[in-house]
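> run fold Eclosion hormone
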Amino acid sequence: MRWIVVLFTVILVGVAAKLDLSSICIANCGQCKRMLGPFFKGPACATMCLRTNGVISPDCNDPLTVKAYLKRLF
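> ok
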């Protein structure tokens, strides 16, 4: 009985950690959209966050993590 409780707890912690990573990633996408405005592809960033469960997260101050979501206006 004790092992079932431990297993259940481990599963819940794993699910919560994945949700937390995704929410942080989505928040980062929103922050980059506010900072970079029309140059930043916010929906593409959010889609990638959800597809990778938050593993790929943009950092607005790091051009290497943001360059995939930048676009030209002309």
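Residues 2-69 form one domain.
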